[in-house]
Amino acid sequence: MKTVFHALNSLEAHIVKGLLENEGIASNILGEYLQGAMGELPANGFIRVVVEENDYSQATQVIENWGEAKIIA
Fold this sequence. Notes:
With about 70 residues, the protein is an alpha+beta fold. It has helices spanning about 10-20, 55-70, and strands at about 1-5, 25-30, 45-50.
């Protein structure tokens, strides 16, 4: 598995996972439950979306297109 996206929070990770699934790309979210383990300290950068290595190129393109759409909107 290869990291394709570092999420700020679990909501963002699930949005990316949904985008990838809509394109037929299987993905997993890692570190989602570490967010609350830090107590009152912000735990950013622990949540990531991973895909199989052979899906990495297509997945990065899907995420880039989503990022561009967010900027335009």
